[in-house]
Design brief:
Number of helices: 13
Strand order of the largest sheet: 2-10-9-8-7-3-4
Order of helices and strands: EHHHEHEHEEEHEHEHEEHHHEEHEEEH
Shape: globular
Number of domains: 2
Structural class: alpha/beta
Helix content: 25-40%
Strand content: 5-15%
Radius of gyration: 21 Å
Largest sheet: 7 strands, mixed
CATH superfamily of the largest domain: Type I PLP-dependent aspartate aminotransferase-like (Major domain)
Number of strands: 15
Length: 393
Amino acid sequence: MTDPIAPARSADLAVPVALAPTPAGLLKLSVGNGSPATLPDLTAEAVRALGAMREEALQYGPLYGIDALRDGLVRLLAEDGVRTARDGIIVVNGGKQALELVARALLAPGDLVALTAPTFLTAISIFRREGATFLPIPLDGEGMRVDLLEAAIVARRAAGLPGPRLVFDMPDFHNPTGVTMSLDRRRRLLDLAEAHDFVILEDDPYRRIRFEGASLPPIRSLDPTGRRVVGVGTMAKMLAPGLKVGWVDADPALVRRIGALKMDGGSSPLTQRIVADLIASGRLADITRAITAEMRAHRDALAAGLERHVPALRFRRPAGGYFLWGELPDGMDGDVFAEAAARHGVALFSGVHCFPGEPRRNTLRICYSVCTPAELERAAEALGRAYAALAAG
């Protein structure tokens, strides 16, 4: 007899590794949560939302988001050179829902998605759930190897195979590597999108968490038609993750298609109103600056600790964001190292989960956002003990 509650596809119920609970008592280098030290006091904004604005904040929200927030996001994006309007914005429940909705709107089973290897591990799960196949593209210190993407597309066309429907990337402080895509490659990727008829999905949660160097224009700002690039943003990293406020910035026709797929009755108008007021008052910029300063101190503490205690770990010091990508010596397995780290009191992720295809097994994704600088020093020391134990056999 068939079990009436059995899932049609059991794989759909697998918990993504990023959502698995961290055992209590471990120093958390595993997930990109906000630092407790930077969570802002939003009492004044909440009082206004729940008082003077309660008729808006305590009802079901408009499908596309409250106008005050959509207009505020238009102004925020304009600071980065992105030209959009209210009808090009839909507010969603965080960046992950944004990715889910864009994937559902644009992909059919069997469609090809090109992405970096490694890439954001939750994006892999989202695209796989839509039935996508993957074209993994290496990256280096300037981001995605756009030349290799072009070569792969040309080779597929010559073999009678379709090119990608979607190219996904996080060009600023890429999760998990921390790399920023060069301006030349951003422009070349946009040229390829036009030449080979694909859409670029630009996920940019870390863009404003910059520690040094000049800001580069989003790919979305370079798109003259406004139809080749879909932008995804979130307040999770530059404000607070628990507000669950994200957005999609795209051609209005695609925004309407996404709206038809959004079945939640509208994202919370309470948190939307809080964010809208933060943008209007200028407090959002102050909060983001404070988070950036804190994350710079975290990055520096972790990098110095790793250099001291795990000198065999190769890594590039990121210029922004929340993550550091580490490569162990050849032959040492990231899964095994993560298990050893847990025995020494540290939770982190093996990098193998960040590959859409065959992984590089000697890799680690290390997050520095949650622990204090002092805790990061202790964590690095513990990782050194874990490394020594494995190296000793």
